[in-house]
Amino acid sequence: MTVTTQSIPSSNVNRQPLHWADRLRNLATVMVVAIHVAGSVAQGNVEYDTFFWWSGNFWDSLARPSVPLFVMLSGFLLLGKDYPLGDFLKRRFSRVVIPALFWMVLYSYYNFRAKGSPANVAEAIRGIVERPVHYHLWFIYLIIGLYLVYPVLRPWIRGAKEQDYWYFFSAWAVGALLYKILWVFFGISIGVYFELFTNNCGYFVLGYYLGNKPVEGGGSRVEGIQPWRISEKQLIGVAVGLITVGTAITAIGTWWASKSYAGTFHPYFYDYLTPNCAMAAAGWFLLAKWAFNRPPLLDVEKEFAVTSFGIYFVHVLVMDWWSHIGYWQTKIHPAAGIPMVICLVTIMSFILIAFIRVLPGGQKIT
What we know:
This protein is about 65% helix and about 0% strand. It has about 375 residues and is mainly alpha-helical. It has one domain. Helix 1 (about 20-45) packs antiparallel against helix 10 (about 275-290).
């Protein structure tokens, strides 16, 4: 979400245009909006056998790969580039921290006006340090953590071979994905400290790996990464299959788990660190890489990609505004209401951020 394709040298992307990366960023941005619009329908009632609930569950399940896709795009666009450490930290953190602080202060004031908390400036500052100020701002803390690990991962990437990547992904699958299944459903805890493999680093490296993995005879290759042994058309079929299966497991698994646990909503299958979400995220990434690169970007696609970070920040305020004036996703049946509100919130957020960016200093906070 915070890295632009223009900042990456052509040698990192096999001298091919990166239309697909901007289109995938745009898709992931809409997915974030969809999660927050559909969430109250899917997670806010217990009538799991109704079309009403399934309308929310469908959109929420379909959009779950959003955050993993942003992490994967960041890995693809960053890990192939050798930045001097000081320059990297200065440029990346200024790109994230300055707008994040602005919006955290704004949301702190918003929360104070709405709920009376934080009660004073000291409490607001402590809240910014300790936890996300608003429910969607946790991503900032995640991306900062990934930037901190970049200087460690980049030298490893430079010398990694195919088997090294698969070792990394296998360890991550156990430490981040399997561990959660064992703990949530069976109460079993793995005693080994998996350290690097217990969070989102797997998506970070996976994005670089999938983004640089060519088809056989498909042009230049990144050293250490072997080409796919299937055709481009077959790869697109695999991508669609991963999206379909991953999304279906998310939706059906959430229905099953929620009905099986005393009728309360069970959030496991909605989690980003689950096999089903990883499958769908990998599918969307591959589909974009091999099917979204033609034709060239429209001007509106370029502008939307540039404003995606700002849309992420502002869309919750826009959602709340629509709600306060009496229009929300269940004003009509959510089967129609959810996609309508997704479109309204996305378009209004895009226009608002585009306007802010033409103001003095607007680009620094978006």
